[in-house]
Specification:
This protein is of the alpha/beta class. The chain has 6 helices and 13 strands. Strands 3-4-5-6-7-8-9-10-11-12-13 form an 11-stranded parallel β-sheet, with no helix packed on it. β8, α5 and β9 form a beta-alpha-beta unit.
């Protein structure tokens, strides 16, 4: 008896396998589509993107818009270009600081300026910080080429009247020192553009003579004891940035709209109960930061979404300090806290400016600062 031979049509077998392959590819495609639409896959993509941004030191506000992460490659390229631009700028600043026209001094071992400094009258910039220097000598009047006096975080008790002889002075930074007054002679520096007296804690007024400073665009007198906006400040017709936060202001002058060029106005941590309608006349004002704990009245137009104004209403959390401390220690702690406070607010405002879209009115943003 012979063997049975089963004969298959090859075309049938091929058709069978082609059908199976087709079904397998279809299932693969469906699975890929499902993964693309899957929330878990989206979350994974966002986490990888966030990790990449953090690795490159990119602030969250840049890639997180209204609670959503923008994972576009174009955004990352834009951020990298901006980062490269900032690095180039910092490199230029370092090159500038190495100039023979720039004097730098830092460190707590310095209690007075070196004697040889008197002979270097060609200098255009002083950058002195974190020293124990208390006195700026009167021979500063010899530095007629001076453009920048950068003297933050020292122990300076007063500024000499001779500072008024620096006719080419553009920037004066005496923040976080121990100044109790500003010499009226500073009003003779008619080319001054930036004035920073923040963090001295004891300043209560600015001399009327500073009204002559018509080129000033930046004034920071925060973290002091001003009870009102100085009259001289209201006469600085080109002023664009005014920070008078952390003072004792109860109200704003009704003629605050004299500052027609004002763009940024920081008022947080004062005792304001209302905001005058004159603020609405400041057509170039784009940033207003106030404290909300005492406010009972404000112009409703400030909250109008049609205005370019970014109005930020902060709820302050006062610091409870129940520990017994002597006066000097409390003063130093307060100075450190105010400096930290300013750094936090600076970072917050930078984030606010970087956002492409931001609510015109932000209410009850809580800041609790503790050292």
């Amino acid at each position: 008896m012979g063997h049975k031979v089963v004969v298959f049509d090859v075309s049938v077998i091929r058709a069978l396998w082609e059908t199976r392959v087709k079904k397998h590819k279809t299932r693969q495609k469906q699975e890929e589509e499902r993964l693309e639409k899957s929330a878990l896959e989206k979350i994974k993509e966002e986490w990888n993107f966030v990790a990449e941004c953090r690795r490159k030191g990119i602030p969250q506000a840049v890639y997180c818009k209204n609670g959503f992460v923008d994972t576009s490659v174009r955004l990352l390229e834009k951020i990298e270009r901006n980062s490269l631009t900032r690095q180039t700028s910092l490199s230029k600043d370092r090159d500038k600081r190495s100039s023979p026209f720039v004097f730098e001094l830092s460190g707590e071992h310095w209690k007075e300026l070196p004697e040889t400094l008197k002979e270097q009258t060609h200098l255009k910039e002083w950058h002195i910080s974190n020293t124990l220097i208390q006195i700026i000598p009167t021979y500063i009047q010899l530095f007629q080429a001076m453009r920048i006096l950068d003297l933050p975080k020292n122990q300076i008790l007063s500024l000499p009247a001779e500072i008024g002889c620096l006719k080419n002075l553009k920037e004066l930074n005496v923040s976080f020192n121990h100044l109790k007054s500003i010499p009226p002679e500073l009003g003779d520096c008619e080319n001054l553009e930036r004035l920073d007296c923040s963090g001295n804690l004891e300043l209560t007024e600015l001399p009327f003579e500073l009204s002559n400073l018509k080129q000033v665009t930046f004034v920071d007198i925060s973290a002091n004891k001003f009870a009102s906006v100085p009259i001289c400040v209201l006469r600085m017709s080109n002023l664009q940035w005014l920070d008078i936060s952390n003072n004792n202001l109860n109200d704003l002058p009704q003629d605050i709209d004299r500052l027609e060029e004002l763009q940024s106005f920081l008022l947080y941590k004062n005792k304001l109960t209302y905001l005058p309608y004159a603020l609405l006349n400041l057509k170039k004002l784009t940033l207003l930061v106030v404290s909300g704990d005492h406010l009972v009245e404000l112009p409703t137009a400030l909250c109008d979404s049609s205005t370019p104004l970014k109005f930020v209403n902060l709820m302050d959390n006062p610091i409870d300090n129940t520990q017994c401390q002597d006066a000097d220690e409390m003063m130093e702690n307060e100075r450190d806290r105010q400096h930290f406070d300013k750094e936090v607010m600076k970072a917050y405002i930078e984030d606010l400016k970087e956002r492409e879209s931001v609510p015109s009115y932000t209410t009850k943003v809580s800041f609790s600062l503790q050292l």
